[in-house]
Batch of 2 targets.
Target 1
Amino acid sequence: MSSAPHTQASQAARSLAAALIGDPFYRAVTVACGDDEAARLAMLEAYFALALAEGWQAGRVDLADDGCNGAAIWTTDTPAAERQAAYAQREDALRVLLGERGFAHFSAIVENMEHALASHDLSAAWYLSIAGIAPDAQGRGLGASVLAPGLAAVDAAGAACFLETYNERSLPFYGRLGFVVAGRYAEAVTGCDYWLMLRQSSAA
């Protein structure tokens, strides 16, 4: 997939960082920043820039307000070899960005989540990996609007999709979009629970 202009990508990365800086996953992987929230925000901007690049390379990215206020990043039905190559490229960059301890946290959390997914047979499902709206733009319907094109594409493909969230308050929002809770899991690295939510194919 083609990428967005650099300015849009930078704006989207900043918006995602502002939106998700309090999330237990992102706090765990930016452990190298300690209590320096400015450093954490900068590290997350770089993190999300890499995630956006991976999405444009081998998935799907939708921008809220041309990236000014947020984005949604999907893993899609792109051929597995392309997805694996894009992920490996991002993983190499994250190893440097996050530092030894942060990358160890990243790897362990991903492994824990993949283990929890194993019993759900989601190998053919699309994955909403990242979604966020800048805090000062929330409450205006941008969350639903940035997800709408991806959900339409999921339905057109006749696929199921899923997401994971540490934010219990987001469950009703995703429920209105057709997702249902499929499990609640304790995650050891963050010390927090997260929810797995599934949305069945419209063709099912």
Target 2
Amino acid sequence: MVVPGPAGSEALYTTAKEAAGALGVSIPTLYAYVSRGLIRSQGVPGSRNRRYWKVDIERLKGRRIPDEQHERPPVPGEESRGPVGETKITLLTQRGLYYRGRDVAELAETETFESVAALLWEADPGTVFGRSLPAAPPSYPRLRRSLAELTVLEQAMALFPLIERANPRSYDLSKVGFARTGADLSRWFAAILVGANGPSAAPVHEFIAESLGAPQGFADIIRRLLIVCADHEFDPTTYAVRATANAGVTPYYAVVTGIIASRGQRLQSGRIEAAARLLEEIVSTPDPRDSIVARFRNGEQLVGFGSPVHDKKDPRAAIVMDALTKRFGDDIELKRLHRAADTAAEISGALMDFILPALFVGRKLGLKGQELAVASLGRMAGWIAHASEQYHGHPMIRPRARYTGPLPP
């Protein structure tokens, strides 16, 4: 029997007896693992029982548990994935995504981008997203015109150091200072995104929708997109952000680091371009099934379908697609995207990844060639959260290298 709990928790937790049985250990040994931080648990409301996190139990199955003076056993596959860090921000499971223990699907239904960003930053949204707006550099209007040929992210990399300098409170690296600068940065990036002369105190999703002339009801799609893409645990961009935050940089430079990492050729540039080409084919042809079938027939990789992390459809993709369908179900391009997704699932079982609906939203906003710019704004909230956690929660790290080259004579 699974310990009762909040809706959906039955799939995530198990009883002490079941946990001990799965590991082949006694109940006292299970408690010892919990006390050593190897297994997470929580109390069951209304009783003295506790329930145990299934993911931790699955990770420990069949592994030799080291003595207490040694580190925790590695998760299978960690050795090839690189170093593992600790975080209290995002929990990434095969069933869903959680920000500080809260289901992202539920947050997307009820919250604003501002309230979710504040949740990630452990701040009060009313305090950090106040009516006071960050200052503009005196040269901003002239610079904005001269940078017009650059992409939105390239403009941000050029302008953020000047915006930081125009707002001395950006150098306040306290937790509340980090959050306050995070709010300023978010509003500034939204202004750069839409080509405005300065930031706005309006809710970010409404400001973007109005500035870009989005269809009625599209602001809600933007809001959901910003929330679901805010963080996805320790991807390479987050790792880069935390590395610079370790040295004590401001949120502006932490985000610039994330932007630089996101442009790496080994990371996503080829994937984004391939997914954008596939999306263009899908929404531009009367029968999008042809594009999917042709790729399978030729043995090509079907970019944008099949998540490497989630065992079912990427929950972020599901949230955005469901919202689009409810509000714009008659849109011919959206119908073609659904038809393509059904074809991919029918042929191989591969389900839609988040990148396709994120690109689709950007395309509908007229961001040709920069379709992921809106999603990038959401991502910055996660980067700032990780930068703050790294700076405030860990001492400065000086990693050591294990030399593998030729030895000196």
